[in-house]
Design a protein that fits this description.
This protein is an alpha+beta fold and 77 residues long. It has one domain: SH3 type barrels (Roll), CATH 2.30.30. It is 17% helix and 42% strand. The protein contains 1 helix and 5 strands. The chain has a 5-stranded antiparallel sheet, covered by helices on one side. Strand 1 and strand 2 form a beta hairpin. The protein is elongated and about 40 Å long.
Length: 77
């Protein structure tokens, strides 16, 4: 099963149009992902990411709810 998870953008690393990347925190684990699909994303925004790509921007409340559910089922700490 594949899962898209919320993460908070910590830093945007400017790149070409198709390779705009950012450092994103997923419950404390920081990963570098492609944010080209969400060109309006900015530092502090929460995004839903899947296999290294941000798919859309979500609000903080929704991100926190999702993280809480993942903690409950033991997928994250």
């Amino acid at each position: 099963m594949c899962l898209a998870v919320p993460g908070k953008i910590l830093e945007i690393i400017e790149g070409e149009e198709l390779l705009k990347i950012a450092k994103v925190s997923f419950g404390g684990a920081v990963k570098v992902i492609n944010i080209s699909f969400v060109p309006d994303a900015k530092i502090g925004d929460y995004v839903i990411a899947h296999v290294g790509f941000a798919l859309n921007i979500i609000d903080e409340e929704e991100a926190q709810k999702t993280m809480d559910y993942l903690r409950q089922i033991g997928d994250i700490k």
